[in-house]
Design brief:
The structure is a single chain. By secondary structure, the protein is mainly α. It has a single domain, classed as Up-down Bundle (Rhopdopsin 7-helix transmembrane proteins). Helix content is 74%, strand content 3%.
Length: 324
């Protein structure tokens, strides 16, 4: 009995996205560019919002926090994946594997609750515009962000509690590019059926609960503005389109991964790539391309740091130093 309870597995082998050696350099180049795009896009969003006083509003405050979480979501596993593309045997220690599980549920849980807060912000702005600044005060915005991080922390601790004491004494191959909780628990030396149900219940409660709150919020907003002018309806639809797109892109993979019981391992990997790579890079694109204020602020920021003639002057100086 004592031997069974001891965790003899000290490392896990990640199979990654593909076993083809020919595809490794191609995938490395693609995901490196995507990761750089995530960092640049989200950092630019944060910089634009923080540097422009006109964007110091509740909506953009929450958007800046969303960009920060997106950077965290992409960073917890992407560097490991990029490094694994360059080696033949992709190994991760037991402790690092648990760290992956901790951070993915922390960031994903926080983003789910933050998206609900953003939906509440749009509800107040559209349905109660006269009381918007009173209801969505700076203190309330900070509390909403803290609640999202606390909810993510409670969620990840509850998920990690199912895994940390499991005995791993047999197979140690994880068919993914990071340690995903459902895949890791299947490798335990005991029957994990009940634990898998608890994991699904925990993740399902947070993801489906948040998704239902979002659907209710958007429905109430659309019903409220339906009887108003066509201009108000068009503005509300334009505002909600970006939010609904982000919500769909983020929640659909999460729900299928942790709630839908019939998805295959290959589908798991595709969905994992979607919510760890593609959603963080699409969020700044969706919010900035549909927002005139943000685009105008980015142009102003560009003109402030890259003044006319500054680029050409830098090029001339470089050429002068080289000829010298």
């Amino acid at each position: 009995m004592s031997e069974t309870n001891l965790s003899r597995v000290t490392e896990f082998v990640l199979l990654g996205l593909s076993s083809s050696k020919e595809l490794q350099p191609v995938l490395f180049s693609i995901f490196l560019l995507l990761y750089i795009g995530i960092l640049l896009g989200n950092f630019l969003t944060i910089l634009t919002i923080t540097s422009n006083a006109h964007l110091h509003t509740p909506m953009y405050f929450l958007l800046a926090n969303l960009s920060f979480i997106d950077i965290c979501v992409a960073t917890f596993a992407t560097p490991q994946m990029l490094a694994d593309f360059l080696v033949a045997r992709k190994v991760i220690s037991f402790e690092a594997c648990l760290t992956h599980i901790f951070f993915i549920h922390l960031f994903a849980g926080s983003e789910m609750v933050l998206l609900v807060s953003m939906a509440y912000d749009r509800y107040v702005a559209i349905c109660k515009p006269l009381h918007y600044m009173t209801i969505m005060s700076r203190r309330v915005c900070i509390i909403l962000v803290l609640i999202s991080w606390c909810a993510g922390f409670i969620h990840t601790i509850s998920q990690l509690a199912f895994t940390v004491n499991l005995p791993f004494c047999g197979p140690n191959v994880v068919d993914s590019f990071f340690c995903d909780l459902p895949l890791v628990t299947k490798l335990a030396c005991i029957d994990t059926y009940v634990i898998s149900l608890l994991i699904v219940a925990d993740s399902g409660f947070l993801s489906t609960g948040s998704f239902l709150l979002l659907v209710i919020s958007y429905t109430v907003i659309l019903v409220t503005v339906r009887n108003r002018s066509s201009a108000s309806m068009a503005k509300a639809r334009s505002t909600l389109t970006a939010h609904i797109t982000v919500v769909t892109l983020f929640f659909a993979p999460c729900i299928f991964t942790y709630v839908w019981p019939f998805n295959s391992f290959s589908a798991d990997k595709v969905l994992a790539v979607f919510y760890t790579i593609f959603t963080p890079i699409l969020n700044p694109v969706i919010y900035t391309l549909r927002n005139k204020e943000v685009k105008a602020s980015m142009l102003k920021l560009k003109s402030q740091y890259l003044k006319p003639g500054q680029v050409s002057a830098i090029i001339r100086n470089v050429l002068f130093l080289e000829t010298k």
